[in-house]
Amino acid sequence: MRLLLVEDDPLIGDALQRGLKQEGFTADWVQTYAHGMSAIGLVNYDLVLLDLGLPDQDGLTLLSAVRKNENSIPIIVTTARSGLNSRVEALNLGADDYLIKPFALEELAQ
């Protein structure tokens, strides 16, 4: 399974990429909205792991843009935003799941 990890924090991104590899996944890692949109347009990913706090655009903007393009790729939001409004907004925009950081790698891999 090939995943796209959109995460701006180098420590989290590196740890997730390594952990996912140990779980048998291939994960491409980008750190910005622009690189995420570009990667989604170029590669047929099985899943996107999406942080919301990106430096050049909010992750919800990426989520919304992907869904407006009628792309049904599964997207799991992985964020520190734990508020109910953020979760509801992401799910209403088309997120398939919403994981609040910190989470266990085992939870994500399942």
Distance between the termini: 13 Å
Oligomer: single chain
Q: What is the CATH H-level superfamily? A: Response regulator
Q: Which structural class do you get from the secondary structure elements?
A: alpha/beta
User: What is the helix fraction of residues, given as a range?
Assistant: 40-55%
Shape: globular
Sequence of strands across the biggest β-sheet: 2-1-3-4-5
Rg measurement, Å: 13 Å
CATH class: Alpha Beta
CATH topology: Rossmann fold
Instruction: Compute the number of helices.
Output: 5
Instruction: Give the second-level CATH assignment, the architecture.
Output: 3-Layer(aba) Sandwich
Mean pLDDT: 95
Count of strand segments: 5
Tell me the number of structural domains: 1
Largest sheet: 5 strands, parallel
Strand content: 15-25%
H/E element string?
EHEHEHEHEH
Unreliable spans are none
Descriptive account of the structure:
The chain has 110 residues and is an alpha/beta fold. It has a single domain (2-109), classed as Rossmann fold (3-Layer(aba) Sandwich), CATH 3.40.50.2300. The chain is 44% helix and 21% strand. It is built from five helices and five strands. The protein has helices at residues 10-22, 33-42, 59-68, 84-93, 105-109, and strands at residues 2-6, 26-30, 47-50, 75-79, 97-100. Strands 2-1-3-4-5 form a five-stranded parallel β-sheet, with helices on both faces. α3 (59-68) links the parallel β3 and β4 (75-79). α2 (33-42) runs parallel beside α3. The longest helix is centred in the first third of the chain and has 13 residues, at 10-22. The two termini are 13 Å apart. The mean pLDDT is 95.
